[in-house]
Amino acid sequence: MSDGAITDGMRVDIAVVGGGLAGLSAAVVAAQAGAAVLVLERGADERYACNSRSAGGAFHVAYTDAAGDPGDLLAAIGRITKGEVDAALAAAVAENAGRTVRWLRDQGVAFEPGSAPMYNWMTAPHRPMLAGMDWPDCGPDVMMQALAARLADAGGILARGCAAQALVMTDGACRGLTVRTGSGETATIASKSVIIADGGFQGNADMVGRYISPRPDLLVQRSAGTAMGDGIRMAETAGAALVSMERFYGHFLSRDVMTGADLSPYPQIDQIATASIVIDGSGRRFADEGIGGIYMSNLVARFDDPASAFTIFDRRIWEEGPGVKSVYPANPTVEKASGTVYRADSAAAMARQIGVDPDTLSRTVEDYNAAVGNDAREQLDIARTDSLFPATPLDTQALMAIPLAVGITNTMGGIAIDGNMRVKRADGSIIAGLYAAGGTTGGLEGGGTIGYVGGLIKAAVTGLLAGENAR
Ligand SMILES: Cc1cc2nc3c(=O)[nH]c(=O)nc-3n(C[C@H](O)[C@H](O)[C@H](O)COP(=O)(O)OP(=O)(O)OC[C@H]3O[C@@H](n4cnc5c(N)ncnc54)[C@H](O)[C@@H]3O)c2cc1C
């Protein structure tokens, strides 16, 4: 439905900001329970862009089966976040993930398992993991269409082309919001509660610059670009606390994407990077590669020049290891899309090609090879743990390198909420009438090692709970 549904002074039970997975899950469950629900969605197209629609479609909890035993899910969240997680949010996801994916299935969302337990709840038809935002008619797009249809069936309104602007606060409680309609008019909507679900702030370069990276212009948007931080700004103005704003979910991409190569959102270079070494512009390692690409992407984003890192690997990794053995392999996709892959028969020769100091890179590779080859990792200044692909010495006569860019997908930090998705102030008190869900919220993910719990399951569980609790 277009913005014709909006009238100034309109009254509803629940107003939802954003028609992504979080917003539609909240809206559908609330409308089915009899509430008068209005979803405000800035996108005007019938199939408006949002991260939920362009996602890969894997509903996992910390890379495990979303419908697994709640105790196991809680343990997996604890492992991936190294315990740096809001306990109430971890429990909410662990206890509700299974019923949430089954609820989605009951709403007509089709799932078809993939190749590993983390893909047991993969939307169908599967989205090809290729370069380009090739989401039309893939599982996540079909999912969004199904939820929009259920909302209409239940009498809810999805008003497209309408951007929420500010919350209406009365005596410290949220009682509605103001909206800019597609025709440029401002309307005030009265509601018993508002659910903010506008997806985070990855599309807002000023906010990314303030919280995440000194050079947002040197990060790559690996997202739909629709999350502008409006909800965070509105909630903060109303007194909400913000948490972990500097953390984001992202991946390494081939740097050639910055000059137009068709190499985003896939293939990610993370799998190669975590099996080998990653260096900064000085030719030195700067992170424990085994922790993973999301962690390293966050560190590189904070560099003065986030487009200066390389992964150095070898022919075996490229031809027999993670170069070819991942769900979306970089080999041969990167070179087919004219992405740069360097080859050299010594570390010094590689250094000359990629423009770093030959002595420094030679020492970096020698130290790494000695430590992982001789089981003497404690000798390394920077720790090296194993990932899915264990660290092995690099063959210095068959070295390879890929210049890296950081692709920002979804911010992980945001509005502080409790286990019932109620928005919290810094002193822990609740802002009456105000709820938040999905990518705009913080506290679940993004501890010290930037553990990623899963954007889709986070959106669906927090959306469902917000819709059930908002009255
Ligand atoms: C390429 C890609 C692949 C991914 N793959 C996976 C995956 O396989 N598994 C996984 O778990 N996660 C994945 N994710 C992450 C996941 O898609 C997101 O974490 C999740 O969809 C966020 O949902 P959301 O509803 O919070 O936000 P969104 O889906 O972004 O929805 C927010 C909506 O709010 C609207 N909006 C913004 N501002 C306003 C405003 N002021 N007023 C009204 N509306 C507004 C936007 O237009 C948008 O439609 C992927 C993301 C991308 C980009």
Tell me about this structure.
This protein is of the alpha/beta class and about 475 residues long. Helix content is about 30%, strand content about 20%. Strands 1, 2, 5, 6, 7, 8, 17 and 18 form an eight-stranded mixed sheet that branches. Helix 4 (about 85-105) crosses helix 14 and helix 12 (about 345-355) crosses helix 13 (about 360-375). It starts with 10 loop residues before the first strand and ends with a helix. The structure holds flavin-adenine dinucleotide. Flavin-adenine dinucleotide (FAD) binds near residues 19, 50 and 230.
Number of DSSP strand runs: 19
Uncertain stretches of 5 or more adjacent residues: none
Domains, number: 2
Average pLDDT rating: 95
Class of the largest domain, according to the CATH hierarchy?
Answer: Alpha Beta
Beta-strand residue fraction = 15-25%
Biggest pleated sheet:
8 strands, mixed
Rg computed from alpha carbons, rounded to a whole number of angstroms = 23 Å
Listed once per kind, the bound small molecules are: flavin-adenine dinucleotide
**Annotated CATH homologous superfamily of the largest domain:** FAD/NAD(P)-binding domain
- CATH third-tier fold name of the largest domain: FAD/NAD(P)-binding domain
- Helix/strand/pairing class, anyone? alpha/beta
Overall, the morphology is: elongated
Query: What is the helix fraction of residues, given as a range?
Result: 25-40%
What separation lies between the terminal Cα atoms? 24 Å
Number of helices: 14
CATH architecture label name of the largest domain = 3-Layer(bba) Sandwich
